[in-house]
Every structure is written in C-alpha cells, then in structure tokens.
Amino acid sequence: MKKFALFISLFFLINYTYSQEFVFSDSVDISLITCSPGPQVYAKFGHSGLRVRDKINKYDFIFNWGIFSFNTENFYFKFIKGQTDYLLGVQYTTDFLDEYKRRNSVVWEQELNLTVAEKKKLISLLLDNYKEENRLYRYNFVYDNCATRPRDVVMNSIEGHVVFQDIYDTKSFRHAIGDYVGSETWLRFGIDLIFGFQADYNMPQLQSMFLPEILKFEFSNAKVTYLNYVQNRPLVKKSTVLVSSDVNNSTKLTFIDKPFYVFAVIFILILLISIYEFLFDKKYNTLIDSFLLFVTGVAGVVVIFLMFFSIHPLVKYNFNILWLSPLNILAAFMIWFKKWRIQIFAYQLLNLILVALALVAVAISLQTFNQATFLIIATLLVRYSCWIYRTKRKIVRKNKYKVKEMNSTTK
After folding, report:
1. 63-91: b or e for each residue (b if 16 or more CB lie within 10 Å)?
2. How far is CA 256 from the centre of its chain?
3. DSSP 339-355
4. Which class is 2-168+205-243 in CATH?
5. Which of 15, 80, 225, 340 has the smallest set of CB atoms within 10 Å of its CB?
6. Are 226 and 160 in contact (CB under 8 A)?
7. Residue ranges of the alpha helices (H) in 111-171?
8. Looking at the whole model, is its pTM more than 0.90?
9. 350-377 pLDDT, tens digit each
10. H or E segment at 85?
11. Which pLDDT tens digit goes with each residue over 34-54?
C-alpha cells in the first residue's frame, strides 16, 4: 500500500496523458505485479498492481489500487470504523520500481497469457476503473483491496474460465494474516484481540487471494479453460523478478517486543504480591485491581466499538469481550469506596463466570486466543479471586461483630 503523497505529481502527468486519445497496439503486454512486504504496518502484507506495457506506443504504466492519504480528515477514526477510501492511481513503472528498490522489497512480474481480445477488454476495464467517478473506492482489507481489484479485472476479461490449482493449503484468516505479522509480536497480539471467531474460519481459495503473495502463487498455477473443449492454456506466460533484494528484513525481537514475556513477568509479580497479602494478611493493594479493571475496560470499549460500529471484516462476534467488559472502567473507580463493596463483590463473581465462559469458548474451539491472553486472564483470575476472598472475610467479620453487639445489648 502506498502513500498518496508519493504519487500526487503523477496524477497530473497521467491525467494529461488520458486527456489525449489513448491507443494501444495489439502487441501490448499486461502483467500482474507483486511486491514483497515492507516494514511499515500498512505494508506488512505486500502489494499488487497491473503493469501495461506497449513497446510500439512506448507506454509503460502500473495501475495501482493502493493509494491513500494519512492527511485525510479524521483518517484514524475512519480507519477504525472501516470507512477508509483508497484510490486507483497510474504510475510510470520506473518510478514504481524505484520506490520498492529504496524499500528493499522484491518485485515479481507475471506476464499474463491473454488473447488480443482479452487484452483489449482488460485495458477497457482498467480505463473505466480509472475514470474520475470510479477511481475512489471503499477499501476493505479482506474483500476489496489492492490484490482483489486486479484479480477481479483480470478474471472479468477472460473469455473462458480461470481454474486454479486443485491442491490448496487451507488456512484460517487468522493463521494467514499471522504469517505476515509474526507469532510473538505486539501487532499479532492486537490483531488477535480484535478479531472475532470468524477469523478462525478457513479461507475459501478465491478469498485467500486478498494477500498479494497468495494471489501471485495462485496465478502461477492457474489455467484458462473453455466449455467447447478448446485446449487449455496457462494464465501466466512467464515470470520475472524485476527488483531483487539481498537485505534480510527480519528483525530480532527483544524481550520487550514479545507480549508473552512481558505479561509473564507481570503475572509472576502480581501473583507474588497476592500470595504475600494472603499469607501475611497485609494491607490489600487496591491499586492493582483498579488498574487491571480500568485497562481491560478500555480494551473492552475498543472491542465493543469494532463489533457494533465498524464495518471491518472479522471483528464481529468476539469472545474476548467476555473478559474485556467495558463495565470494568466503572468498577475501577467504585472499587475504592466501601459503600460499593457488596456491589463490587457481586461484580467480581460475575467476572469470574465470564472469564470461565471465555476459556470454555477456547476449549471447544469456538475462537482462538493469543497465547499472551492466557497470562492476562490468569492475572485477572488471581486478583478477582483475592478480592472476593478478602471481601467475603470482611463481610463475615462485620456480620459477626453486629451479632455480638446485638447480644450485648440484649443482655
């Protein structure tokens, strides 16, 4: 995915070109372009585009559906809601490749094996997509992005039927996305936290092509078939590496970069504090409980917002909400006041039940939780249980004192 600022000058160049009569020769070549992932979050999954090269008329452009601007009004709020608009832009191939050279990404080209009629139809679809009234589209990470758009225009231009390989490596959406963000990273932890159980569904073969490198792989094995038994042909004529890279983009994660280890340390510290309080009957540390309730409550607000107000895919029906209750924010303040002791006691009992239900959902494979999540849940279980135990003792002591006082008054 590319920043809008990189291409703004190109729009004026290409718009000028399109204001003239744009004629392609029959020898035009059209290729699927695939770029390997980059270090930025928006570039973690790679990029796709279509290259149109006409040596006779000296055209060499890349149609790029991945243009957006961080400077869009309320960009981050719109992104969270899933209301981000992307643009189809056209860039000179040399400029496009130079950008990926600077990023140290690999760029593959797969020249499509199309008939003259199919090329004309594909170019017509591309030019129609690039019309001012059509170039803006509502981006959807899974269903409508920089990989699905070129896939669809190619398939819609084929006179026969595109048949993909029979052997398909079945993966869930969560698994496939996790391959790109790492298994132990904070980004993976955040994604697992906001994804619901739909992310654990296995991807249909066609749907899996929302990831550019999977699209490249599927195209390399695809064939074009005909109902009238005309000989099948491969969809890709030849493959070439346009930009290579010897740079290893993988970075070694430190201790602090791995949420599992961070939460493991937090769990051990809080467990030791809780044991110390229990064994020596020391003053209870309400600050720990208040902090845990507040943080999980804020996370719960984010999850609730995504579930009910965002149009992002895969974030609906999230069982993480069972232990990330937004009501925890209110409880984080109420826990400091003695007059709310009974109410918080009942609420903590409810929290124990909800956490147990979340674990049941994982146990029966309704949803996958990030491994670091279990350390947070374990921490919550320890503190919820400690609060309930100590509050119950205080309530019992208070009631005993009242009984003694009544007996003394009676005598």
Report:
1. bbbbbbbeeeeeeeeebbebebebbbbbb
2. 22
3. GGHHHHHHHHHHHHHHH
4. alpha beta
5. 15
6. yes
7. 116-129, 148-157
8. no
9. 999 999 999 999 999 999 999 999 999 9
10. strand 85-92
11. 999 988 887 899 999 999 999
